[in-house]
Amino acid sequence: MFDYRVSRSRRTVATLASFCAAGLLAACSSASSSAPSGGAGATSGAPAGQSAATSTAYPAPSGGNGGATAAGVTATEIKTATLYDGSGAAGGLNPGILRGVQAYYAYINAEGGVYGRKLVTTGLDSGYTPTSSASVCTQYAGSVFAFVGSLSVVDSGCLPPVQKAKVPYIGVKIDPEFSSYTGYRDFESGPPSSLAQGPFAYYAKSHPSVKKIAMIWVNNPGLAPYEKIWAAGWESVGIQVVYNTGVNPGTSNYTPYVVAAKNAGAQGIDTSTTSLSDTTLIAKTMDQQGWNPALKVSAFAYDKDWLPETGNAGVGWEAYIGELPFLSPSDLSVAPGGKLFSTWMTKQFPGVSPDVYAAFGWTNAALFVQGLVKAGPDLTAAAMLAGIDSLASFNADGMIGTQNKPVGGHNVNSCFIVLEDQASTGVATRIYPKTGFDCSNQKLVTANGLINSPGAG
Predict the structure, then answer these.
(1) Using an 8 Å Cβ cutoff, are 174 and 2 in contact?
(2) Listed range (53-57, 119-123, 216-220) with the worst mean pLDDT
(3) Dihedrals phi, psi of 82, to nearest 5 degrees
(4) CATH fold for the domain made of 195-324+415-452
């Protein structure tokens, strides 16, 4: 949810997903999800078994594809890397990012690849420290064609080696400095330090009695700058942030924070930039304290483990996302991209529920492939980036709301869907809009007030 609508911003750890999709971070998945084995370092990312799929193929031209036209490129393969937080203090925060990229690559490879080249990615575990992130990125930056689908809270360590190698970075940024890197692209990255206002405006309208809200977030240097913009999002729609505090990772006692938020007069709470385990503890603590505010928002409320972990304490929480509801086969089935996502995630990772990170990885991999297609067989980094920039629009075949120009650059995906956890269904269920996405609010929140989006739609 990091650059989401701080736009990719998205959603998430808001949230990595919210943030990511919303423009900040986005919803984090359960640490118990099947993550690549091993500690910090590299994990082989060659796709598993493949089968036929329906899509447009991009065959090699009769005269050949030019062979080794760039670093990480041969006549038969394109090597990429994917940075994610797989170990360390976060304990497997977002391995779904890597799975999403691998699943999309498997789909494309089943069609013969792009101009005769198969796609392979190597997962780089950041270890949840800038030092470890710098180490693994330095090791691979000079030998891969691009970083694809990457998302790490400690990506600040990766930026220097990426810049030095001049390797494209197609993924969700946390470090704002990525915005100035000419090789950076994201399917919904907007102007630095901006956030889509749409979800906040929805909550203000749907909960008119809520005028004060509390924010609890993980005290991480990568998140701190975004929290100010996140708070500005609430303030921009007339909801005052009366309690705003960061907690250390691994905090086990949330009673002081919940009591303080309640005593501050908060009528709502937003925990989108914590983690699933943190928000679970917060929800249970609120239940123990008898505090049930009218509005409870967290990107993690849309997770397969949310209600099983929280029980009645998790009922009534809401989440907003910027992609099709990835836990709902019926929602995914309405668009070609949703069907493909469901099919290939199941093929590659049977028994593993998809999460928002997988959706991010899948969508940025789709953007990367469109850049490859536009670049043509004689592949170079400059041609691929120019290919992304030339796209008139992008929506990953309906997996997200349509992005208009400038795609992959300074644009924000203002489209969103709201879900609510309901005891009757046992999972978060779409409550707004009834179908499709709400893309109507094109305003962006910044530290200096509202601005118009450059073209998200």
Answers:
(1) yes
(2) 53-57
(3) -130, 115
(4) Rossmann fold (3.40.50)
